[in-house]
Every structure is written in C-alpha cells, then in structure tokens.
Amino acid sequence: MATAKKAAKKAPAKKAAAKKPAAKKAPAKKVAAKKAPAKKPVAKKAAAKKAPAKKAVAKKAPAKKAAKPKTKRAPNPALMKPLTPSAVLAAVVGAAPLARPAATKKIWDYIKKFGLQDKVNKRMINADDKLKVLFGGKSQASMFDLAKFVSAHLK
Q: How many CB atoms sit inside 10 A of residue 10's CB?
C-alpha cells in the first residue's frame, strides 16, 4: 500500500521533470495549470479503488463474530468437589477437605515458600522430606506430574 503511493508520487515527478524543457517554449502558468488537475484525479482514483476493498473486508469480519454466541465457560463441577487429602498430602496442604485446584495451588505456595523449584530447569521441583513422600520417593519431579500426585492423594 505504501509502495503504491510512493510509485504514484514518483511517476508524476518524472513526468514533470521531462516536461520542464518544453515549459520554456510555452508560458509557465498555463503548463502548471494543466499539470495540477491531471495529478489529482490519479491520486483520487487510486484511493477510491483501495477504499472499497477495505470496506468489504470490514463487512465480512463482523458477520462472523455475530454468528458465534459468546457464553462464559463454566468450571467442571467434579473438579470443584471438596475431597479429603491423605496423611501424606495433609502434611503439605492441611487436613481440611479441598478441591483439586486448591490443593495444587497450596502445593505451589509451599514450593515457592521454601524455594524448591530448580534454579536451572524451572520445570523441575526439588523435593524436600515432605514432598519426597508425596512424589513417591523421587527426589525431583516435573511440574507436569504434580496434578497426578495430587489426584493420587485425594479421596
């Protein structure tokens, strides 16, 4: 789009440069009056051609958005059900019943509080004594396995 404008501006400039020697023969005022109207319609035609293309694209986009009904996503009630943690998990998150996401969040709070996330590979969690039992004896576990460990210790 910008290159088309530059080309449109450059082309008339070259024509004007070519006609300057001819302007010496004719009066300068008459030549200037003839050139000015010729340049303006070219620019208007180029702008007029581009404007309908933009309008056509704009008309299609709102039609697609209007077709999709927007509804707020509801959480799965099975995930929000309070469950009782096992003794191993209760040592980290507490003995009160809580939902799976809440238990995972409390484990992350524990990990951040004691700085157990690996410094080099942030995906790995270094286990202390409490988390080692939760992780099934592993000294290090991936953050992606955390939900699996939480699910195993909630009833």
A: 10
Q: What is the pLDDT of residue 35?
A: 54
Question: What tokens were used for 50?
Answer: 């581009």
Above 60 in pLDDT, residue 5?
A: no
pTM for this predicted structure: 0.52
3-class DSSP state for residue 46? Answer: helix
Mean pLDDT across the chain: 76
Say if residues 125 and 118 touch (Cβ distance below 8 Å).
yes
Distance CA 43, CA 2 (A): 13
Beta-sheet strands, E only, within 1-151:
124-126, 140-142
Pair 123, 81: CB distance under 8 Å: no
CA distance 111 to 120: 15
Residue 68 pLDDT grade (very low, low, confident, very high; cuts 50, 70, 90):
low
Q: Is 26 helix (H, G, I), strand (E, B) or coil?
A: coil
